[in-house]
Write a structure and sequence with these properties.
This protein is 46% helix and 13% strand. It is of the alpha/beta class and 844 residues long. It has four domains: 182 residues, P-loop containing nucleotide triphosphate hydrolases (Rossmann fold), CATH 3.40.50; 98 residues, no CATH class; 182 residues, Rossmann fold, CATH 3.40.50; 190 residues, Restriction Endonuclease. It has an eight-stranded mixed beta sheet. A six-stranded parallel beta sheet has the order 13-18-17-14-16-15. The chain has a six-stranded mixed beta sheet with strand order 19-20-21-22-23-24, sandwiched between helices. Helix 31 runs antiparallel to helix 32. It is globular.
Length: 844
């Protein structure tokens, strides 16, 4: 009788040996909508294949240019070549699912690993195809890929990978947890002693505008206590969201940034030490897949200064027709109400800057459930009009091409996901970093519904912050040229709608129907002027890479080499961006302090605080202060201070009066007088124009330094209640009048513009000047304390130097030189206080 195996027949499986990715594509059995590859895709594959042995390659293509298929073919090529393990890394689980669907439609096998579970693991183990995973699985502190040691890694969406990577290295302690309260308790004494008690009270009351950075000199005293608090609080408990980041930071708490906001405390590295991970550092080949707008600065800050081989295929992939619509309305709510009416009958995706803003759309749209992943997106793709889906801060990882969605609403300017991003953007005000990172987020957001040349659709723009950002020619220069032209077209069409020449309803019908008249209008797109694409300065790109390297040195405990690199880096950057130089100088102080070089460390910390008071100012003893030397010749400011210091009794009386006058209360006149006296003791020409007869016009207090023709216009709002806001007319509107007064009264001089008062929200309907600062009264109290120290030190000095030389010495050391002393004061821009804040928890 035939045996049980007699019917079995085997056809030996042969491993695919093709390594040319174009040939691999030709060999595939296509099952989906992919019929061929476009010329830019083919060009990218040919260029990569010619340089396939490069250890680091950056492949840059337009958003919607077909990067996923290219990356899959490259991954399969390397699997075939090496018979080894290849990883394809995505930012989100949804993108893992989306990538696998693309692979399946193209006839490619893939495995997947996420949330600690495998799918089709044999494909990976037997080297039949790559494993599609995410940054969380690759970079977490217990990653299985530390053992797997892949032969190649493809990092998809590398230009927006930083938040995904940072989440792997950052402990986030929500304000609703006991651990948050314990962290506040640990640093409460420092915050109160440094004059921040009122801001602390505001933070604890839920004020989203307050953000504290715990200086490294303070963390150096408390890191062991902080570690014990975290361990005792169950930071490493199984199943907790902090378990995996803890594995990275548990032995490095002493070299982490600690930032505290109303929503959470964050503990993580100052820059991303991704190159400390062996699965990347020791990987023979890493390929970074990026969109057309990769900022070299953001890329270098994330991945370091790799000498990557760059591939930029030509062609017009992803160049879709877009109608951008600037939603009209004096307030954000009015703009959103108008947008709701406009899209009422259309299927639409709505992306908001935060969860609170998403709630405004709940009456017309379903809130995206992150737990549904790609299934939820696919369900929305299949839905018909007028279905609407609202997503909070999902600026990448969601692709809605073609008829799946033709209408997109962007509500609010995209924000950074972590407190450290916000600290750089809105506290230190490192403008070069802020502009490029915002441009990336805006471009990514707009690209959600445009994935090919044949795509077309509408993007409705809501929120004064978003609209104002896009209208700025300087900001437009960070955008791709085609998107700049789309903005220019949108602004002209807006004017035609205002004139009554056309309507948005007609324009939308035209683009959605493919109307010939719309095409004729759109064909004018090439005629619009665009700003020359602003490439980041070479110094900034170089600094970003060195910053990443310095962070790696600190992370590894190599304080000696970090203490050499960071001061040099600070000096290189200082002529271009003083805020960034201060940040590096603070970390130089930390490295020096860890080496036991306390005097140089103190000087570095103080120099950093002199540029940006937000970095914290260590206490100084008279012994350390009197060792200071200054070779600078006295300036006019020092001469003015010396003249006042000659009458020590009068100076001390003025200082005492200033101390009591700088206080919140119903009457602002006392505070105005104190601010005026403070300016005089700084050696400035100080006056109260609004108090002068007969005109009684102008700002409350005016500081002028005539040699440099730079001054400060101060408006005292020290009577503001804790839960009030700055109003359009009586608060913000005044400054537009003051600007006219200053231009007329002091031609040729420039002025800082500042409201002196609590950091309260600014009303949405107001239109503050872009450079209007809100500076809390506490900052002027701290400034007054340093002025008092200067006069005390001048009086106590026993050397034979002239008073002006002594004054110059302390002006320099205490950061009181003009205009540095004002620039260094922590502040919020009024425009930043107009918009909703977003926490890391809200984004995730």
């Amino acid at each position: 009788m035939p045996g049980k195996l007699s019917a079995l027949k085997l056809t030996p499986r042969k491993r695919q040996r093709l390594t040319d990715p174009e040939e691999i594509f030709k060999s595939l059995t296509l099952r989906g909508g992919v019929e061929n590859i476009w010329e830019p895709q083919a060009a990218a594959l040919r260029q990569w294949h010619a340089k396939r042995q490069e250890p680091r390659t950056q492949l840059e293509m337009s958003t919607g240019g077909g990067k996923t298929l290219i990356a899959l073919l490259i991954a399969q090529s390397m699997v075939n070549e090496t018979s080894g393990n290849v990883l394809y890394v995505c930012p989100t689980i949804q993108l893992i699912e989306q990538t696998r669907l693309q692979a399946k439609a193209s006839g490619l096998e893939t495995a997947a690993y996420f949330r600690g579970k495998w799918q089709d693991q044999d494909v990976f183990r037997e080297a039949r195809g790559p494993c599609v995973t995410n940054y969380a699985a690759l970079c977490n502190g217990k990653s299985i890929f530390r053992r797997e040691r892949p032969v190649a890694v493809i990092l998809d969406d590398a230009h927006v990978a930083a938040p995904s990577i940072r989440s792997c290295f950052t402990l986030r302690l929500p304000s609703t947890t006991p651990l948050f309260e314990s962290v506040i308790g640990l640093f409460r004494q420092y915050l109160e002693k440094s004059g921040q008690s009122q801001q602390l009270a505001s933070l604890l009351a839920g004020d989203p505008t307050v953000l504290f950075f715990i200086p490294m000199f303070e963390l150096n005293r408390k890191w062991q206590q902080l570690t014990k608090i975290l361990v005792d609080g169950g930071i490493a408990a199984d199943g907790s969201t902090t378990l995996f980041p803890w594995e990275h930071v548990k032995d490095r708490i002493d070299r982490c940034c600690v930032l505290i906001s109303a929503s959470c405390a964050e503990i993580g590295p100052p820059a991303l030490p991704i190159n400390s991970l062996p699965q990347l550092a020791e990987c023979p080949r890493v390929i970074y897949m990026t969109a057309t707008l990769p900022s070299p600065v953001q890329f270098a800050r994330t991945f370091g200064s790799h000498a990557a081989h760059v591939i930029r295929p030509g062609g017009k992939s992803g160049e879709a027709q877009r109608l951008l619509v600037f939603s009209p309305g004096e307030t954000d709510d009015a703009q959103k109400d108008w947008a709701k009416a406009l899209i009422r009958d259309h299927k639409a995706c709505i992306i908001t800057a935060s969860k609170p803003r998403a709630g405004y759309w709940s009456d017309v749209a379903d809130l995206y459930d992150t737990g549904t992943g790609q299934a939820g997106v696919e369900a929305f793709k299949r839905a018909s009009a007028p279905t609407k889906l609202v997503m909070a801060a999902r600026y990448d990882g969601v692709d809605l091409p073609g008829d799946s969605c033709r209408v997109l609403v962007l509500d609010g300017l995209p924000l950074g996901s972590f407190a450290i991003d916000r600290f750089a953007d809105e506290t230190l005000h490192i403008e070069d970093l802020r502009a490029s990172s915002t441009a990336i987020r805006v471009t990514q957001a707009i690209g959600r519904i445009f994935r090919s040349n044949t795509d077309h659709g509408i993007v409705v723009l809501c929120g004064s912050d978003l609209q104002n950002w896009l209208r700025s020619p300087q900001n437009q220069s960070y955008l791709p040229e085609l998107l700049q032209r789309h903005v220019q077209l949108a602004l002209q069409l807006r004017d035609l709608v205002r004139e009554g020449t056309t309507s948005y309803a007609d324009l939308i019908d035209g683009i959605l129907a493919g109307d010939a008249d719309w095409d004729r209008l759109y064909n004018a797109i090439s005629g619009y002027d665009v700003e020359a694409r602003r490439a980041p300065a070479n110094w900034l790109v170089a600094a970003a890479g060195q910053e990443n390297h310095a962070c790696r040195l600190l992370w590894d405990g190599n304080f000696a080499d970090a203490a050499k690199l960071l001061p040099a880096l600070s000096s290189q950057v200082e002529p271009h961006e003083r805020a960034l130089a201060a940040w590096y100088r603070h970390w130089a102080g930390f490295a020096l302090e860890r080496l036991g070089q306390n005097v140089p460390a103190l000087r570095a910390y103080v120099a950093a605080a002199n540029e940006r008071g937000q970095l914290g100012r260590p206490s100084t003893s008279s012994k350390s202060v009197f060792s200071v030397e200054s070779s600078a010749a006295p300036g006019i400011q020092a001469e003015a201070v010396a003249a006042l210091a000659g009458d020590a009794v009068t100076a001390q009386k003025s200082l005492a009066k200033i101390k009591t006058g700088l206080a919140y209360g119903e009457q602002t006149k006392v505070a105005e007088a104190a601010l005026c006296s403070l300016g005089q003791l700084l050696g400035l020409v100080s006056s109260r124009p609004d108090n002068d007869k007969p005109t009684k016009t102008g700002p409350d207090v005016l500081w002028r330094y005539t040699p440099a023709k730079i001054g400060a216009a101060l408006e005292a709002k020290t009577d503001k209640k804790p839960k009030s806001q700055y109003q359009k007319t009586e608060d913000i509107g005044q400054f537009h009048d003051h600007i006219q007064y200053l231009t007329k009264a002091h031609p040729g001089e420039t002025f800082f513009k500042a409201i002196v008062g609590p950091a309260l929200p600014v009303s949405r309907e107001s239109h503050p000047p872009d450079d209007l600062r809100i500076v809390s009264l506490e900052e002027f109290q701290e400034l007054a304390d340093r002025v008092r120290m200067m006069y005390d030190y001048i009086a106590a000095s026993t050397d034979k130097d002239p008073l002006a030389v002594k004054a110059q010495r302390w002006l320099s050391y205490l950061g009181l030189e003009w205009p540095q002393c004002f620039e260094a004061l922590p502040f919020s821009l009024a425009t930043d206080l107009q918009r909703d804040e977003v926490s890391a928890e809200e984004v995730s």
